[in-house]
């Protein structure tokens, strides 16, 4: 479709994910952002799933049946002339490959850290995926209204554990009960936590020397003077602000704040929107790059959400638009099969009523109702564009289960189900080398639950699953393979492409193997 405003519309898009360890405050900050964007009217709408705009959407129904969050998968709102798309990346037990793949569909990421806890396990895992993509990463250190760790110590930990430079955009003035405000380095002003103690205004502009103006009640405040010195030191000794490094994901701008008390969040949002990139070009399998301003529509499927309602077999394929404009009812081609598809039944994720149909362009996410045509990683395109986007990476599973059909008479549906779900990317499948037992692998427990549920409900195949726990999966070159390498501390298997791999009991078993076979290279997926 020819859209004369395409460039302008693409340039106003900001599509990002918020990553964090559970409880760092991702939901709280997301809610604040939605409130600023006018997408929700009261806090608690996302988390508490109380009344609100979300309730009006059909997603609520699906969510109720599944009992896990679907509504919050994609949230869109307008702020300050920008159209913001936030993609949810669940932590906890919801954790799955979906979470990782979602990070393939964003242009930047925000990492939320609890100021009392610092870098936690899940943040680190998600960060590594984002880092590999080389996209900008912004950091929000949360819960400043509580006593946390020293800001400097937090930055040091961040740099050390995540191997990234940090640049503080602001610096806390006090903390917990003693929190007075933020020294907003980037905007050269102070943002007061308790404006009423200092004349009522939230922002105090600083002079050119970074000083409080004469006759302001904050003048002479010793806490502020200490922070001023600290900031001077940071400016001298720390890394300087570097836009290029930020764009590559080699430096992260760090913001402190408190999501719960809505302190520092709006400044964060405004600064973030200033620096976060608009959609970039996407690479195709043959190394070309498709510009988001290309008029023909194209996109790729990064997630398939099964509708767990047994009465409907439909699913929703989440498509990241990479170029052009989506129009309801348009015809596209599914690259893998060459089949022509009509995009008739499509959801656009406005956190608003469904009737409020907005146009979708490169950078946006659409949800295509699917009756089984799409697979994860599929490209769809309009007209003559004929592109195939790069394959989405597979992630090394960490959890494994042995799986078999409960009813031996139902082998056929068991196999059909398992192969379809594997193709869809819901789960990874392996077979033990000699005995050909089925093993499924996942990065998160939720994947197993969804697998079991769908096998039963969609394929009428009850499965027996035997947990094998954590294993370390490593692939080897088939030419190195010797069946004698298999021992009691590892399991030799092959993946669905017939490639050999070992499932090691633990690090120790893997090291033992490497010592014994120093010439055999052990490879992981992403
Ligand atoms: P998550 O999505 O990252 O898992 O975190 P979520 O926002 O649900 O926040 C986890 C807990 O931390 C919540 O408390 C929330 O209220 C609290 N929290 C978030 N931001 C801040 C902050 O800036 N300061 C303080 N002091 N607390 C914060 P909860 O008791 O687990 O839940 P709730 O009953 O309050 O909803």
Automatic annotation (TrEMBL):
Matches recorded under CDD domains: RF3, RF3_II, RF3_III
GO terms, biological process: regulation of translational termination
PROSITE patterns: G_TR_1 (PS00301), G_TR_2 (PS51722)
Domain Tr-type G, chain residue ranges per copy: 11-280
UniProt entry keywords in alphabetical sequence: Cytoplasm, GTP-binding, Nucleotide-binding, Protein biosynthesis
InterPro entries: EF-G-like_DII (IPR053905), EFG_III/V (IPR035647), G_TR_CS (IPR031157), P-loop_NTPase (IPR027417), PrfC (IPR004548), RF3_C (IPR032090), RF3_dom_3_sf (IPR038467), RF3_GTP-bd (IPR041732)
Pfam families named in the record: EF-G_D2, GTP_EFTU, RF3_C
Cellular component, GO, one term: cytosol
GO molecular function: GTP binding; GTPase activity; translation release factor activity, codon nonspecific; translation release factor activity, codon specific
Major location (coarse): cytoplasm
Residues bound to GTP: 20-27, 88-92, 142-145
Domain of life: Bacteria
Localization, UniProt: Cytoplasm
Family: Belongs to the TRAFAC class translation factor GTPase superfamily. Classic translation factor GTPase family. PrfC subfamily.
HAMAP family associated with the record: Rel_fac_3
Role this protein plays: Increases the formation of ribosomal termination complexes and stimulates activities of RF-1 and RF-2. It binds guanine nucleotides and has strong preference for UGA stop codons. It may interact directly with the ribosome. The stimulation of RF-1 and RF-2 is significantly reduced by GTP and GDP, but not by GMP.
Protein's UniProt name: Peptide chain release factor 3
Organism, as annotated: Enterococcus asini ATCC 700915
